[in-house]
Write a structure and sequence with these properties.
7 helices; flat; mainly alpha
Length: 165
């Protein structure tokens, strides 16, 4: 109680963006940048891999290397965001699907556009969470879930589990 650890844990668990610690941001920033550059560097290979393993191998793609580098990029980016603001449900799940519908299937465009659209989406959800139950603040995860669950139901209804989602 002396160090107010319970307050820190509660703010991390409830995902309040304004509680981001500047020292933690400076520590996490290099990992996030490495993950971002890795993702952008793998974008063309990921697009080729999305055509199928046989086609990618036939085009000279090293699919195992691509998978490992892509997973490492995802781990770095996800770890950075969770370390900074806590768990934010659905942002990393719905934004790439929305962006893919807008810009097509080329990951050279999906990755940077997902970055921008995700930032705008999370800022809007943060704003909504502050005024939804004023003067109290609703956790951002609740707001993203109100948007994310219907979107996933829409995807299930229209795409039905096909791989071209």
């Amino acid at each position: 109680m002396y160090f107010q650890v319970s307050q820190t844990i509660a703010s991390w668990y409830n995902t309040k963006i304004q509680t981001v610690d500047m020292q933690l941001l400076l520590i996490a920033l290099p990992f996030g940048l490495i993950g971002l550059f890795m993702a952008l560097g793998c974008a063309r290979a990921i697009t080729i891999s999305s055509l199928g393993e046989d086609i990618a191998t036939g085009l000279g793609q090293k699919t195992q290397t691509t998978r490992i580098l892509a997973m490492l990029a995802v781990v770095l980016l996800t770890g950075t965001s969770v370390a900074l603001v806590g768990k934010i449900a659905f942002v990393g799940l719905i934004i790439p699907h929305i962006v893919r519908m807008l810009v097509g299937v080329d990951y050279r465009f999906i990755i940077p556009c997902s970055l921008a659209v995700g930032a705008v989406f999370l800022s809007a959800c943060d704003l909504i969470s502050r005024y939804l139950n004023f003067p109290f603040e609703t956790p951002i995860g609740v707001v993203t879930a109100f948007i994310g669950i219907p979107f996933f139901l829409y995807l299930i209804r229209t795409k039905g589990g096909s791989s071209n989602a």
